[in-house]
């Protein structure tokens, strides 16, 4: 389908002059990332060489996309702003609330019944405010965006960390919290820390068993889960242009797992082909007309060290298939080393389930390459040794691969096709036996593999690989199997070797679909009523958070000192808790239940300083709130990595946590905390983390003179009567300080609209 053609034409008409002006102002060649950023500066923002990683800059994104779990809170916030209609094209996609259990059709029917209240709310509020609505079953947000909305040179934000998938079509696409989306939909500027730039030069060409997925698995191994924080990763070189558009999307998608602001590729023929194949020939023609503005300048790519803050080079011709994991997406192991690594780490080598698809690896190309291996099961007299599932990324992909016989091939080997939804990737997989919490191994082509992520079992070891490698491993049923070198025993007792995968970049007969699942909004939504029942367990209208009281904060209790990895999954779990994403009070009952308490090495067990007893984190915090006492959360490195979910910031705010003090933050979570009027602070000396004691009463001083670049002081009042003062840093600019003072960014927006 074709959407927003006038917007795209306007962008392309204005982009050359804007890029030329930026190049002149900076006096140097520009990367692709810079071209898109500078051509999307908010009106009136002076063009200058903003300091990367230091300067906050206001931008004007072209569009907003929201998935159903995060859209609830984003739109509940937007509903309070006073706007009659969204200021930029926006969409809602129903993909997260569909549990994978039996198979696609049955699971979808159940999901529609179980979530009827939420889906109706999202459909009605979308209709009221001029938002496009993609119904349950239409597909996963990022795949639908790539097929319908993404365009080279554009800028978008989305309330999901994997919004970055659209970088495969040459966009700057950035995952944000709902409050950021609310700003943009309300017609306000969007603030971003000017990202650093990481260049990845790709030489050679993918071949054999190696796929685009292996590029990002390799990059994740190099940069780790925080190596891309506050940076845009820009891929270039002959290897980049030789790749398919959807392959580029795969790479950009999992860039979220290295903490990157986003990732992107320059416009090339593969993007043109994909645009035409998905019914957007006019967009391709527009991009072709200004193609030199939709990629980095030649001088940049010739001498990348001069223009990027960091450069990585990968030879695709020599790249080996990888498996990343378990429990973290950056533990990268080449397939040739997996047998040794599994033995060394005592990983279970029997593969219980192989899962392919999702937003990152469900393209026609991905599925066609996987099906080329599935065909070999029958042809070579083999049997599938593991359970095997396929999750199509969209109804368009599902319909097309069904038409082309791919689903029949998978069915013949005993595979299960799940709904066009997120399911197993986000903890919405009702896996039989997971409740036993047995130690086991699965392999999948998704993006994230933290503990409990897939099936809720903390002992499920998930390894991330390409769809074709997952398929091969599911056929073998063995983590030690290397399809490049190893053979399998067939039904005749013969040793047979799998042929390398092959497939079509795009369907030769074109894409097809009967009902893509799109619902356009009403031209005039003023008469639409948003129905939220007062006694609803799923939805709750929002009320403003209280403004700062105008004093330093005294007598805060330590809620938890989190040890080690503390992702947004640890702070606000997904899985069964997704059903409460529209009800702030109910979902707050999962606050930090997955975080490890430094003092007892347990989860969901912290000391209540009012009683001296240990209990659940949410109950303890509710006790402090009831007593009118604020609290503080202390965390380790890269606190809040992973999902964009703003609930991880809204829940502690709702329950009375006043500050989060950590060694370092993940980008989106730090922003989300600021948006909700909380204090997001970092240790000036990371060693001071060790000074925090379990019974501390904590003061935050310096708020009366809170200013950009000026440290605050934290006084640790210990149980033995002693105290010590430590210095803490923050990254607040003046606007963000006003959010804090007002009690949250939304309060500032309301006040502005109230003026007129």
What does this structure look like?
- By secondary structure, the chain is α/β, with parallel strands linked by helices.
- The protein has 3 domains: 5-41 and 55-315, Aconitase, domain 3, CATH 3.30.499.10; 322-494, Aconitase, domain 3, CATH 3.30.499; 553-755, Aconitase, domain 4 (Alpha-Beta Barrel), CATH 3.20.19.
- Helix content is 31%, strand content 18%.
- It has 25 helices and 30 strands.
- The strands form 8 sheets. A 7-stranded mixed barrel has the order 22-25-26-27-30-29-28.
- Helix 1 (5-26) runs parallel beside helix 12 (281-289).
- The longest helix has 22 residues, at 5-26.
- The chain is globular.
List the helices and strands and how they pair.
Layout: H1 5-26, H2 32-38, E1 56-59, E2 63-67, H3 68-78, E3 90-93, H4 104-114, H5 116-129, E4 132-134, H6 141-148, E5 155-158, E6 172-175, H7 178-185, E7 190-193, E8 196-203, H8 212-223, E9 231-236, H9 238-241, H10 245-253, E10 262-265, H11 269-277, H12 281-289, H13 298-302, E11 310-315, E12 322-324, E13 332-334, H14 338-345, E14 351-357, H15 364-379, E15 387-391, H16 395-403, H17 406-412, E16 416-417, E17 440-444, E18 460-464, H18 467-476, E19 488-489, E20 495-496, E21 518-519, E22 553-561, H19 568-571, H20 584-587, E23 606-607, E24 614-615, H21 617-626, E25 631-635, H22 647-655, E26 657-662, H23 667-675, E27 679-683, E28 697-701, E29 712-717, E30 723-729, H24 734-742, H25 745-755
Parallel strand pairs: 2-3, 2-5, 3-4, 5-6, 8-9, 8-11, 9-10, 14-15, 14-17, 15-16, 17-18, 22-25, 25-26, 26-27
Antiparallel strand pairs: 1-7, 4-21, 12-13, 19-20, 22-28, 23-24, 27-30, 28-29, 29-30
Helix pairs in contact: 1-12, 3-5, 3-7, 8-10, 11-12, 15-17, 15-18, 24-25
């Amino acid at each position: 389908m074709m959407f927003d053609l006038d917007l795209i034409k306007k962008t392309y008409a204005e982009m050359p002059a804007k890029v030329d002006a930026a190049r002149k102002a900076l006096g140097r060649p520009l990367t692709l990332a810079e071209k898109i950023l500078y051509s999307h500066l908010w009106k009136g923002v002076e063009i200058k060489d903003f300091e990367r990683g230091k300067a906050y800059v206001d931008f004007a994104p072209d569009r907003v996309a929201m998935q159903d779990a995060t859209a609830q809170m984003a739109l509940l916030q937007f509903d309070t702003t006073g706007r009659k209609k969204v200021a930029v094209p926006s969409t809602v996609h129903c993909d997260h609330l569909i549990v994978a259990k039996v198979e696609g059709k049955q699971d979808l029917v159940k999901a529609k019944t179980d979530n009827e209240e939420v889906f109706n709310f999202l459909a009605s509020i979308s209709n009221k405010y001029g938002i496009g609505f993609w119904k349950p079953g239409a597909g996963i947000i990022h795949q639908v965006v790539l097929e319908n909305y993404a365009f080279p040179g554009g800028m978008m934000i989305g309330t999901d960390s994997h919004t970055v998938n659209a970088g495969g079509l040459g966009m700057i696409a950035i995952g944000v919290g709902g409050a950021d989306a609310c700003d943009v939909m309300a017609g306000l500027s969007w603030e971003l820390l000017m990202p650093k730039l990481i260049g990845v030069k790709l030489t050679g060409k993918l071949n054999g068993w190696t796929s685009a997925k292996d590029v990002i698995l390799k990059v994740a191994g190099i940069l780790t889960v925080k190596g891309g924080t506050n940076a845009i990763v820009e891929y270039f070189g002959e290897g980049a242009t030789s790749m398919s558009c959807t392959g580029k999307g795969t790479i950009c998608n999992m860039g979220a797992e290295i903490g990157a602001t986003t990732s992107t590729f320059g416009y090339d023929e593969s993007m043109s082909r994909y645009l035409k194949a998905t019914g957007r020939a006019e967009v391709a023609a527009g991009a072709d007309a200004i193609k030199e503005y939709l990629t980095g300048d030649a001088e940049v790519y010739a001498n990348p060290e001069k223009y990027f803050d960091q450069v990585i080079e990968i030879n695709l011709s020599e790249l080996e298939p990888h498996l990343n994991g378990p429990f973290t997406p950056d533990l990268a192991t080449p397939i040739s080393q997996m047998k040794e690594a599994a033995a060394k780490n005592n990983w279970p080598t029997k593969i219980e389930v192989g899962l392919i698809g999702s937003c990152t690896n469900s393209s026609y190309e991905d599925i066609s390459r996987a099906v080329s291996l599935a065909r070999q099961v029958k042809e070579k007299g083999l049997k599938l040794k593991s359970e095997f599932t396929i999750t199509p990324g969209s109804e368009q992909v599902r319909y097309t691969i069904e038409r082309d016989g791919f689903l029949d091939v998978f069915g013949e080997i005993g595979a299960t096709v799940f709904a066009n939804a997120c399911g197993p990737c986000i903890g919405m997989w009702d896996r039989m036996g997971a409740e036993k919490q047995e130690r086991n191994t699965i392999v999948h082509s998704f993006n994230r593999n933290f503990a409990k992520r897939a099936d809720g079992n903390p002992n499920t070891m998930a390894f991330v690989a390409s769809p074709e490698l997952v398929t091969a491993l599911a056929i073998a049923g063995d983590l030690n199997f290397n399809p490049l070198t190893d053979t399998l025993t067939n039904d005749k007792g013969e040793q047979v070797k799998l042929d390398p995968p092959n497939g079509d970049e795009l369907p030769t007969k074109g894409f097809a679909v009967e009902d893509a699942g799109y619902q356009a909004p009403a031209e005039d939504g003023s008469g639409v009523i948003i129905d939220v029942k007062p006694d609803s367990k799923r939805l709750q209208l929002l009320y403003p958070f209280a403004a700062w009281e105008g004093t330093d904060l005294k007598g805060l209790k330590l809620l938890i000192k989190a040890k080690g990895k503390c992702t947004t999954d640890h702070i606000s779990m997904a899985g069964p808790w997704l059903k409460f994403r529209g009800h702030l009070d109910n979902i707050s009952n999962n606050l930090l239940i997955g975080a490890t308490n430094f003092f007892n090495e347990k989860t969901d067990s912290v000391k209540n300083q009012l009683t001296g007893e240990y209990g659940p984190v949410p109950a303890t915090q509710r006790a402090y709130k009831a007593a009118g006492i604020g609290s503080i959360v202390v965390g380790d490195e890269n606190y809040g990595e992973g999902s964009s979910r703003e609930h991880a910031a809204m829940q502690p705010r709702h329950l009375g946590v006043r500050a989060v003090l950590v060694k370092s933050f993940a980008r989106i979570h730090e922003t989300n905390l600021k948006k909700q009027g909380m204090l997001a602070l970092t240790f000036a000396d990371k060693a001071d983390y060790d000074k925090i004691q379990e019974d501390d009463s904590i003061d935050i001083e310096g708020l009366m003179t809170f200013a950009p670049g000026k440290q605050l002081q934290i006084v640790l009042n210990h149980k033995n009567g002693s105290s010590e003062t430590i210095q803490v840093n923050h990254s607040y600019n003046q606007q963000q300080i006003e959010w804090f003072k007002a009690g949250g960014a939304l309060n500032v927006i309301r006040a502005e609209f109230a003026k007129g």
